């Protein structure tokens, strides 16, 4: 089932939301050092994610150096944090603390989509969290199309119309090479 998450205004993480997010945080720092304040950095990420298209340099000073927060975000993405968090969000029942920050998580996953690549995109599509997609689904690559094509009954002599349809599906599965900024920013 695919759905859009209703927009919510950004608020700092509550204690219950922070407690729900902590199990998904990986150990990120090199040489065993602890991250200074991961809660404040996640707050910064969620705050900036609520502002469509805002660059890291627009982060308010109270969150510290924007480059540090951006590096933390990249490390989270490469460590699979957003993948795990989306899986946890999909399993969370209504009223779970993760549901309170669902919109912020989806918005942050939009930013992570470029770094997370097709595995993150496939996960978002499989879970049906359309709010986490950076554009309308029909403009994005569809890594799950191979599963759909595998179910097609093709014999040794497929009709030309079938082959043309498959070619069209293949082109559509690749998504658009460039998605206009106006579409990305207008997508909920």
Structural write-up:
It contains nine helices and no strands. It is mainly alpha-helical. The chain has helices spanning 15-21, 38-49, 66-78, 81-91, 97-100, 102-127, 145-150, 160-173, 181-186. The chain has two domains: 1-134, no CATH class; 140-181, no CATH class. Helix 2 packs across helix 6 (102-127).
Structure, briefly:
This is Transposase. The protein is an all-alpha fold and 188 residues long. The protein has helices at 15-21, 38-49, 66-78, 81-91, 97-100, 102-127, 145-150, 160-173, 181-186.
Helix content: 40-55%
N-to-C SSE string, H for helix and E for strand: HHHHHHHHH
- Uncertain runs with pLDDT below 50, 5 residues or more? none
Determine the structural class based on helices, strands and strand pairing.
Answer: mainly alpha
Number of strands: 0
Domain Insertion element IS402-like: 13-85
InterPro entries: IS402-like_dom (IPR025161), Transposase_6_like (IPR052909)
Protein name: Transposase
Pfam family, one: DUF4096
List its salient traits:
188 residues; mainly alpha; 2 domains; elongated; Transposase_6_like; IS402-like_dom; Transposase
Helix and strand layout, with pairings?
Layout: H1 15-21, H2 38-49, H3 66-78, H4 81-91, H5 97-100, H6 102-127, H7 145-150, H8 160-173, H9 181-186
